[in-house]
Design a protein that fits this description.
With 103 residues, the chain is of the alpha/beta class. The chain has one domain. It is built from three helices and six strands. Strands 2-1-3-6-5-4 form a six-stranded mixed β-sheet, sandwiched between helices. A hairpin with a 2-residue loop joins strand 4 and strand 5. It is globular, with a radius of gyration of 13 Å. The relative contact order is 0.25.
């Protein structure tokens, strides 16, 4: 699952791929926090994005095609939680940001 971030939107690409999660963008680093917030999908925390779980799930689910997507989503978030990548309130998941890419 890839969140493609631009200045005015955040598109969830490859929503059926719950084996990975990251953000891609061609924006400069100092513009990423504002773009995440403006798109309503999260915020920047140091070098990583904190993606709102409810928003991410809703957007990903809308494009998913796999019949077992909900199970895959749960496994992905459970794995992230086991690594400490989910905030204590279960509101956001940490994802790395790949700069210079907006595929």
């Amino acid at each position: 699952m890839i969140v493609q971030l631009s200045a005015d939107s955040a598109h969830v690409a490859e929503p059926d791929d719950c084996a990975r999660l990251h953000v891609t963008t061609s924006l400069p680093a100092d513009a990423v926090d504002g773009a995440l917030r403006g798109a309503g999908i999260g915020r920047l925390d140091a070098e990583d994005a904190l993606l709102d779980l409810e928003v991410l799930r809703t957007r990903a689910r809308a494009g998913a095609r796999e019949p077992d997507w909900d199970e895959k989503w749960t496994k992905m978030i459970d794995y992230a939680r086991s690594k400490g990548w989910v905030t204590p309130d279960d509101g956001a998941v940490r994802a790395h940001v790949e700069y210079g890419a907006d595929r």
